[in-house]
Amino acid sequence: MKTVFFRIACVLVALTPLCSTAQSNITKAFDALLKNSDVTYTENHSLDKDVTTGVKESQYDIYTFTMPAKKMSLVDNIVKAFRTDADKAYSFNSGETTDTDPVLQLAVGDGDTGGVRVTWPGRKYIYATFLAPKSENPSGNYRYAYAINWEKTKDVITGQLIVTYATTLKYRQSRATTISFYPELPKMTTVSGGESITSINGNSITTITENGITTTTAKPSDTWFTTFISYVQALSSHENQSTRQAIAAKLYKHVQQAQDSKVSKEDKEVAREILKSLQSQTKTNDAITRQLLNSALISLK
């Protein structure tokens, strides 16, 4: 069992580099909650640095807490701190999650390994993102994200405090793989500001961003191939594995329509090469996504 002193020390180690930054009110409010003797919590941490330069590339800190309902003021202070620091954030979002809402995550590192889940059904949440200080982020490509989610019952409050360090969504999108050999590809609408999760319903694509929920519709042309490329672009643009699985399933269903759509031999050959390339991306695509891509490849005769 950790002593109170050691637990507080761990929190200070995680938060000290950030306390002089624009999000100082948030970090102080986080610290106040974790220091309170009526609060119990478990914690998970990760930190990765470049092996050559020692520069930080990835970080997450997760504190899962429980406390008496009478201590609601600790959460209220965190909410107030978010509001106070909001003008210094480049994105800010809050709400209450229902059973039908999509899962929102905050990216970690370059986003290739997914992120930390923020929203849970029945819980309220707030999160905000801030550019990392120039001292550790001279390129301006990294950001810190802070989040809290919580649920209050009659006697108990349960929730999480979350901090992640990652590249900005704008930077990740600029590095995303693009397919340029087909000039009339429909352009996918992107939303600046923060993390995103995409769901596909028919030919419409809904993007949930850190700035709120923004619905953007990509209307592919009537040809089978351009619709195929729309799904490929969506798959290449999002790092969340559950989202990629959903897109891969849509892609598989679309590929099955190739025969009915009278797709040319040339388009099929190009599509097969694209599917082979996607399937080989073991670092980016998990086993389920790769299996769906393989099934799509097999069905494309």
Largest sheet: 6 strands, antiparallel
* DSSP strand content: 25-35%
Our count of helices gives 8
What is the terminal separation in angstroms?
60 Å
Structural class by SSE content? alpha+beta
Order of helices and strands: HHEEHEEEEEEHEEEHHHH
Average per-residue pLDDT, rounded, comes to 76
| Helix percent band | 25-40%
Task: Extract low-pLDDT stretches.
Answer: 1-20, 177-194, 196-222
How would you classify the quaternary structure?
single chain
Form type = elongated
Features:
three-stranded antiparallel sheet; 301 residues; six-stranded antiparallel sheet; 8 helices; elongated; alpha+beta
Summarize the structure.
With 301 residues, the chain is of the alpha+beta class. The chain has eight helices and eleven strands.
Could you walk me through the main structural features you see in this protein, from its secondary elements to its overall organization?
The chain contains eight helices and eleven strands. Residues 1-20, 177-194 and 196-222 have low confidence and may be disordered. The chain has 301 residues and is α+β, with helices and mostly antiparallel strands. Strand 9 (196-201) and strand 10 (204-209) form a beta hairpin. The strands form three sheets. The chain has a six-stranded antiparallel β-sheet with strand order 1-2-8-7-6-3. Strands 9-10-11 form a three-stranded antiparallel β-sheet. The chain has a two-stranded antiparallel sheet with strand order 4-5. It has helices at 4-15, 24-35, 72-85, 169-174, 224-237, 241-255, 265-279, 287-299, and strands at 40-49, 56-68, 91-96, 105-107, 115-117, 124-131, 142-152, 156-167, 196-201, 204-209, 212-216.
